[in-house]
Amino acid sequence: MSSREAILQRARRALADVPAGDPADDVPVVRAEPSRLLTLEQVVSLFAERVADYRATVERISADQVAGAVRAALAERTAPGTARLLVPRDLPDGLVPTGDEVGIDVGIEVVLDGPDVPIAELDRCDAVLTTARVAVAETGTVVLDHGPGQGRRAASLIPDLHLCLVREHQVRHGVPEAIAELDPLRPQTWISGPSATSDIELDRVEGVHGPRTLHVLIAAD
Questions:
Q1: Taking every annotated instance into account, which residue ranges of this chain make up the domain LUD (predicted)?
Q2: For each of the chain's 221 residues, which pLDDT tens digit applies?
Q3: In angstroms, rounded to a whole number, what is the distance separating the alpha carbons of residues 7 and 190?
Q4: In the chain, what is the straight-line distance between the N-terminal and C-terminal CA atoms, in Å?
Q5: For the chain: N or C, fewer Cβ within 10 A?
Q6: How far apart are alpha carbons 46 and 42 in whole angstroms?
Q7: Cα–Cα distance between 109 and 15 in angstroms, integer?
């Protein structure tokens, strides 16, 4: 049997249950919905695993540990002294460190972002803190639609460190479920790990088109 005949034979077998002639309506396609078989904890755990696969840092914390985790991340990834943290003006209260966090020695200068803040000022910030709109467990992706708490697109691309807060209830199993949550008329930024590219010799370089480091904080509801 030739390769052509083998392909045609497989096609005939696949079409064996299709009615003769053109159907009046589209043939419904039944797709499995694996998310219904998984608990929220399993979906969130899968998301954390896939985020880590992209060489991003992922940390699961309680809702009241966000500010402390932000300060610890800044202390670990910025030079000694004062770290400049960019935050959207509409970031929810309680997420920005206040200096009361115990055992973490780093000063923080908060820079409030807005359309009037020049790009050069964003470039002088060590990190940016944003929330997210939704997250995808299967692909380890965080999606921003730049609504409240997420800032403008430039803010999430220019600082070297992106601290992104994802609530457990925002994690969806697959891409179709995440898309169903999004407004197609809003700008979207899909983030799967830190910015990276490879040259012709496959040498990986990070931080070319966006933050060199992505730190995802998954907060319990």
A1: 121-218
A2: 788 888 888 888 887 877 776 665 666 666 656 556 789 999 999 999 999 999 999 999 999 999 999 999 998 887 777 889 999 999 999 999 876 655 556 788 999 999 999 999 999 999 999 999 999 999 999 999 999 999 999 999 999 999 999 999 999 999 999 999 999 999 999 999 876 666 666 666 665 667 889 999 999 98
A3: 37
A4: 59
A5: N
A6: 6
A7: 64
Q: Looking at residue 177, what DSSP letter applies?
A: H
Report d(CA 189, CA 162) in Å as an integer.
13
Q: How far apart are CA 26 and CA 8, in angstroms?
A: 23
pTM above 0.85, yes or no: no
State the DSSP string of 105-164. Answer: --EEEEEEE-TTS-HHHHHT-SEEEEE-SEEETTTTEEEE---TTT--HHHHHSSSEEEE
Domains of the chain by start residue, with CATH: 37-219 (3.40.50.10420)
